[in-house]
Structure formats: C-alpha cells, structure tokens
Amino acid sequence: MLELKHVSKHVDGVGHIRDVSLRLESGSLNVLLGPTLSGKTTVMRLMAGLDKPTSGQVLVNGQDMTGVSVRKRDVAMVYQQFINYPALTVYENIASPLRVAGVKGAEVDKQVRKAADLMKLTPYLERTPLNLSGGQQQRTAIARALVKGAHLVLMDEPLANLDYKLREELRDELPKIFSESGAVFVYATTEPTEALLLGGRTATLHEGHISQFGDTLDVYRNPQDIITAQTFSDPPLNILGLTKKGGEFRTSNGTLIPASEEEKRLPDGHYKAGFRPHHLYLHRQSAEAVSLPAKVDVSEITGSESFVHVTCLNHRWVALEHGIHNVEVDAEIEVFVDAKNFMIFDDEGRSAASLMAVNA
Amino acid sequence: MEKTINNRAWFMVLPVLFLVAFTAVIPLMTVVNYAFQDSFGNNQFFWVGTEWFTDLLSSERFHDALVRNLIFSFSILAIEIPLGIGIALCMPKKGWGVPVCLVLMALPLLVPWNVVGTIWQVFGRADIGLLGYFLNSIGINYNYTQDPVAAWATVIVMDVWHWTSLVVLLCYAGLVSIPEAYYQAARIDGASRWAVFRFIQLPKMHSVLLIAVLLRFMDSFMIYTEPFVVTGGGPGNSTTFLSIDLVKMAIGQFDLGPAAAMSLVYFLIILLFSWVFYTVMNNAGGEKQQYAGEE
C-alpha cells in the first residue's frame, strides 16, 4: 500500500504539486489522468522517491518513507521513452535488476525466460535494444520492471510513443500481468479513453492538484467538479451557461429547459451544464430534447465518426456523431441537447450532486 | 514513365570537378609522378621505377621515424582519451558552470599550432621558462634540448594540453545527449556509479569516441609544427617524426623523388590505421555480451 499525505512540491518557490493525498492499495491499478504539465510525472517521481516532497509524507505499508533514497525503495518504473541498457542484450537487460539484487544462477535464467515469454520477447533475447522495434524495446523495459517484482510499479505514459495497434495490445496485457504481482500499479496518461479502457481507479490531476480520485467509471460518470469533468473528456466537454429560476433552467437566448426533480432543490442562480460531445446531436433524438441555433465552424470526418465543431450561444462545442455527416462550414443549423445528459455545476464549478450532498 | 536524361546537367558538375582537380587530384598526381622519377636541374626527369619505394621501405631512418610516430600517437591516445572522458564526466550538465567550462575547454583549441610550440618552447626552457626553471630548482634535471626523455615528455604534454579539449568537447556532447530518464532508471535499478558509466554513458558515447580516436590519431600521426618549433626534431633524431623527416628530405635536401615516395607511403599508412581503428571500434560497439544463462 502506498499513501501520500498532503504532499506538496515546490521548485524554486513555484508550486508544482499542491496538497496531494492519495491512498493506493496493493494489487490495485491506479490511473493518473491529466493533460501535459499537470504534474503526473512529478507525482510519480515523488512516489518513487526520486524527489523529496517540500512538505507532506509518503508512506509505504504504513511506514514513513519520506526522504528515503530511491535505491533503498522497492520501485520499478517504465518511461515514455524506451529506456534500456544500450550495450546489453535483451536477456541481460531483463536480468539486470536481478543481478543488482544478487539473485543467483538458475533462478535468474528462470525468471528472465518467464518474463520474456510473457512479453513475447523470447525470439529476441540475444539482440541489443537498438536492433529491436519500438514496441519490442518497450516490452523489454516492461519485462525489466516485471522481473524486479517491485512493490510499486510506475508507468509514465508507457504507450505514448507506440503505434496504435501495439498500444491496444499492450494496454490489454499490462493490467493483467501486473495485477497478479500484487504490486501497487500506477499508470500515468493524458488520454481519457486510455483511462476508461484500463479501468481500475483514476485520479484526475489538474495543475498539480488531484481533483478527484475514485473508481474510473464513477469518476467519469459523476465528476465532483467541472475541472474533473473537463480533464476526463476527450474531445473537450461542452459547456452551456444556464440561469435557474424555479423549476427551470433558462439559456441566454431564452430557451427553457426543465430541471429534474433533484435539480429543482438547487437554489436559484447561475449554473453551468456540462455534457459530452456524443450527447450533442445534429438531429432530434428524443421528444424532450431542446433545439438550439448554432453555426458550423469546422467539420471533420474520421471514417466512421464525424466531429462537427459549432458555435452556439457564444459557446464553442463539438458534436460527435457516428457515421458520416457532411455539414457545410458556416451553415446555420439546429443542434439538440437533452437535459438528462447534463452534469450541472454551480458558478464555482462544484457539481450539483456534491452540493446537495453537502446540504443534506 | 521514361527517365529524362539531360546531358547538359554535366555542365553543372564542372565547377566542382575543376575545384577538386586543382586542389586534390593534380597535386596528388604530381607527387605520384615524382615518386617514380629522379629529377635534376633544368626540369630533367629520369624514370626510376619503384626504386625510391624499395629504398624507403628498407631505410632505417624511415623505420625509426615511423616507430617514433606510432609510439607518439599511441601515447597521446592512451592519455587524451581517458583524460578527456574523465574531464567530460566531471563537467556540469546545467547552470552557469556550463558556458564557463566550455569556453575554458575551447581555449587551447583556438591557439595556432606554432604558437603552442612557442609557448611550450619558452615555458620549458631551463634558464628562463617557468616550467623548466621550476623543475630544475626542485632537483629534476630537465632539459629538452639535450635529454631525449625530457624532449619526449615535453612534446607529449604539449599535445595533451593542446588537444585533450577536443576529446572533452566531443565526449561532453555525447554525454548531454543522454536523456535524464536513463539516469533515473539506473537510480531506480540501484545501479552503481561504475555501472552507470559502463552500461549507459560509455555505450552512448561510443560514436563520438570513435570520431575522437580517429581525429586524434590522424592528427597526431601528421604532427609537425609543435615538435618542430620546440625541439626541431632533436636532440639528435629523437623527436624526428615522419612529417619532420619528410620536410627535411624534400626541402632541406631537395630529394623530390624519395620525398614523394615517402609522402605516398605516409598517406597509405594513415589511411590503413584509420580504417583499422574504425573497423575495430565499430565492431566493439556492436558487440553483444553473451553470458546468457552460463552461470
């Protein structure tokens, strides 16, 4: 188990990580999700012990490890770049953590071959990393982490430099392989889709602060605040400004949207509705859907999906529709939204659900 | 589709052809021409066949100069390469120290050869030179004009002073190109300082080291100006390297034929050694460590 308690990290007086508290269980898969520069790598370095936090504590199995050198910790890490010993063969690369640990003879061979087999590296054991493809190089790095049998396994965007197909393959395998080892498994990514595919638990990171931590699907469906919802949305979350009065929300052009029973209990005032791109429709899907006027900015077709960027009531939105929809740029069209897909946030970005939990 | 062939394109190549002809091919052919003839005054030439070559290859004077040159080159490689790597490893990777170190390192490289020679010639003099005077005053008998060992030491130290910087700069360039993540990964692995050097830094410096060794070998094998200024090839013939010998022969004695033959042999020796270094080091870099499962 790894626990961060109110960990902050300042570099030259600038706060990179602000008050991060996390509790990661052994044998769990944890995703650190956040855009570039959100502090994922810094958090990982703090977890590993490569850096010392400015304040706060890092506990491993309840024992305070803050400031203990990384050499004395039980950590394995895989990077976005493919890091292997350039002059050693794949075999020796995988064996290197065992040799440092002083494992002897036949046991080394057994473990190396087992890891190589899992990572499908057996045919390449005698090659040096530079004579391998990117995917095989990264597999070597992962096999090294695997063979170490570390208590904490950190993966910093390990698949970002791989092509699409390899990425899918490895993404399936990684959680399975490491969940068996009983390690605390931490996986940093910038891609919401990757977090959803990995499952497990997700911590969304925004400007060096954990905005939410919980089961991946739960964080995705019930974000506590608008920042979490935005971090966990790709393409970006659509946002609609609303004014609540009585049992209704009103848009800036006067369109009325009825509030749900729960939302009716919210005090009157300004709100923001967040909804995902696949919930912005170009055609009416249900009787309750509300029509809004919009102008098309850009229309992109990726084969099986169409992304239509529109401006609607001074908001820039993206609609994601299946199939091919040719929409002319600059055309004035009608778009449809359904209040049942709305995530309601107050002016400060707190979700309606979390507000009501506080009021209750 | 047919490939378009336009013969007029050859005209575009002509300027370069002329340039290369005048700077390289014609002088080289002149040398080849001399190497097979004997010349007297009045532009009279007589064909002598391979006589100059057989003379040269059996000449003790040539053998001695060649051996001296080889000893010199290998000595300075043995000193400059490890020293250069060592200094590069000690140089800071970031901060204000980087430009300071780089400028300090680049300074010797900016000094012209004959100036370096003059500096050390004066520096080493037993009567007025700082180094020479100091060494003699602490009881070391140092006089490079009389003692061959002192002359050799001076020439080698001078070359190390002048050219280690080049090795340092090349190695440093190799070192800073190693991503930080390698060092991090090594720390996480618990690798020792030596392991980091042996398994990360050295392999990553391999290609720049190859260049450093080749450059330093070729250059030291052709060394002329500095020992010429400091020792003039002496005392006796003790620091007469191939190039000094060659100049003595060609200009001092005006033996154009033997000198031309020597130039060609000299050139081929450098080519041969450079090729050997290149091949050996390239193979060493691609060497696989195969102790898989043998323990």
TrEMBL record, chain A:
This protein's UniProt keywords: ATP-binding, Cell membrane, Hydrolase, Membrane, Nucleotide-binding, Translocase, Transport
Gene name linked to the record? sugC_3
Domain ABC transporter residues, every copy: 2-232
Tell me which PANTHER family the record gives: MALTODEXTRIN IMPORT ATP-BINDING PROTEIN MSMX (PTHR43875), TREHALOSE IMPORT ATP-BINDING PROTEIN SUGC (PTHR43875:SF15)
Q: Which GO terms describe its molecular function?
A: ABC-type ferric iron transporter activity; ATP binding; ATP hydrolysis activity
- This protein's source sits in the domain of life called Bacteria
Protein name as it appears in the record: Trehalose import ATP-binding protein SugC
Q: Could you tell me which SUPFAM superfamilies the record lists for this protein?
A: MOP-like, P-loop containing nucleoside triphosphate hydrolases
Q: InterPro entries in the record, alphabetically?
A: AAA+_ATPase, ABC_transporter-like_ATP-bd, ABC_transpr_FbpC, ABC_transpr_MalK/UgpC-like, Mo/tungstate-bd_C_term_dom, NA-bd_OB-fold, P-loop_NTPase
From TrEMBL, chain B:
Task: Alphabetically list the UniProt keywords.
Answer: Membrane, Transmembrane, Transmembrane helix, Transport
Transmembrane regions listed in the UniProt entry: 12-36, 70-90, 102-123, 160-183, 195-218, 259-280
Q: What is its main location?
A: membrane
| Membrane association type | Multi-pass membrane protein
What the entry lists under Gene3D superfamilies is as follows:
MetI-like
Which compartment or compartments is the protein found in?
Answer: Cell membrane
| Keyword Transit peptide tagged | no
All residue ranges annotated as the ABC transmembrane type-1 domain in the record: 66-277
Quote the PROSITE patterns the UniProt record gives. ABC_TM1
Q: Which GO terms describe its cellular component?
A: plasma membrane
Q: Which GO annotations describe the biological process of this protein?
A: transmembrane transport
Q: Which family does it belong to?
A: Belongs to the binding-protein-dependent transport system permease family.
**What PANTHER family is this protein classified in?**
GLUCOSE IMPORT SYSTEM PERMEASE PROTEIN GLCT, TREHALOSE TRANSPORT SYSTEM PERMEASE PROTEIN SUGA
Q: What is this protein called?
A: sn-glycerol-3-phosphate transport system permease protein UgpA
Name its species.
Answer: Pseudovibrio axinellae
